[in-house]
Amino acid sequence: MLLTLAFKPESVEETEDYIEFTVRAISADTPIQSAKGEFYFPSELLIKKQADLIGKPLLLDHEWKVDKIVGVVVHSWFDDSQKALMARVRVTKEGNERLVSLIKMSPSPIKSVSIGAVLTKEKDKVVDIEFKELSLVFEGADPNARLLSKYEDITLSTAEWWDDPELRDKAPQDYFLDPSSRRYPYKTWEGKISCERLKAAMQLSSLHGHRQIYDRAKRLYEKHCQGG
Q1: Which of 23, 35, 208, 224 is the most exposed place for a label (fewest CB within 10 A)?
Q2: Is the pLDDT of residue 149 over 50?
Q3: 59: phi then psi, degrees, rounded to nearest 5
Q4: CA–CA separation, 204 vs 94, rounded Å?
């Protein structure tokens, strides 16, 4: 089961070798919609399992490959004030220079963290959870990314429509550099080319190895954003 939350890296700390930041992993006692119906995580379960995320790998897009491991969960706890399971993650700098720079950007194009876990349910209540990993998800790569979007702390508008699942679904296909999967948005809600989104698309596609997307974004950027 993949559960995705939009997030902003909080309390970023940096050393010579790594960066650390805090994310909210799972909200408690809140109904979650899925293809198989509605369910929720009771607070008592997340409190019981709060330390089980520690030591789990931090991946990119849930890909179980050695070169997709970018860090580790160094601490996890249940936050009573937020009614959520929180996680402190560490990303190594060596080999992840682009990823680190994207996380530190303001605003950052990396906005989602996703849990990979095995759930045991009784009707709509999750009674057990086995954490497998935590992933950073790029621009809606996870098709379930909208499931927990209602827990987002930020009030979104058409100015950042790509962060709103409903607006993302409504946007014309030609607003995306990859229309088939509705990824890499590069236009404003009014249909104008966004130089900032093109820069983000170049950075993300380069990091993710999507060469055709990178080349297209670069051509558009050079034509519309550099007076070419």
Answers
A1: 35
A2: no
A3: -110, 175
A4: 18
Residue 124 has pLDDT above 80, yes or no: yes
What is the rounded distance in angstroms from the CA atom of residue 162 to the CA atom of residue 159?
9
- The pTM score is 0.59
Higher pLDDT, 145 or 228: 228
Q: Find where tokens 């790509």 sit.
A: 162
- What distance, in Å, lies between the first and last C-alpha atoms of the chain? 46
pLDDT digits (tens, 9 = 90+) for 81-101: 888 888 889 999 999 998 888
Contact 32, 3 (CB under 8 A): yes
Residue 196 has pLDDT above 60, yes or no: yes
What is d(CA 219, CA 179) in angstroms, rounded to the nearest whole number?
Answer: 17
- Enumerate long-range contacts of 127-132, CB under 8 Å, 24 or more apart: 127/45, 128/45, 129/41, 129/45, 129/49, 129/52, 130/52, 131/49, 131/52, 131/53, 131/56, 132/56
Backbone angles phi, psi at 219, to 5 degrees: -60, -45
DSSP strand pairing (57-60 vs 125-137): parallel
